[in-house]
Specification:
Blueprint: E1 18-21, H1 29-46, H2 54-70, E2 74-78, E3 81-84, E4 87-90, E5 94-100, H3 105-109, E6 118-120, E7 128-133, H4 141-148, E8 152-156, H5 160-166
Parallel strand pairs: 6-8
Antiparallel strand pairs: 1-2, 2-3, 3-4, 5-7, 7-8
Amino acid sequence: MGEHPLSGRAATSGAPAFDERLSVPLWWFLPAIGLAVLLGAEVHMGYPGLRSWIGYAVAVPVVLGALVWLSRTRVQVADGELRVGEEALPLDRVGRVEVVPASGKQAALGPELDPTAHLLHRPWIGPVVRVEVRPGEGAEGAEGASADRTPYWIFSVRGTAALVAALGR
């Protein structure tokens, strides 16, 4: 009862303690639509009549769909778990949390990166967070063994301070 309302331990039910969609910047939509219209115009020049609009009808929805698809990934702390994309990590297995600023991201994702780490990187987001994975209790069998081989998760997130608070670190 005495836990901070944003701590990860308090996020066992109800609304998420942290929830962020890793969406593309809004300004990307304008150049993307411009590119789609340009592609549509290329098709328009080659076909007369009704067929000339096929390029626009295909290119604009495909480009917008691609941007929406790139924006679908979420980082959440809820129901006793840290969820990054499709993967989930119980909060009792969360160890040390380190925020890597944009200036240190190249080293963290390059020479310092462990090949067995869980990685979810979005280049349009500056900082990344590295979350140590502590071994679980009674993690036996093939599934538990593979989960224990992951030393840390490293993923992009904009609200680093709110995530650290939600994880209770």
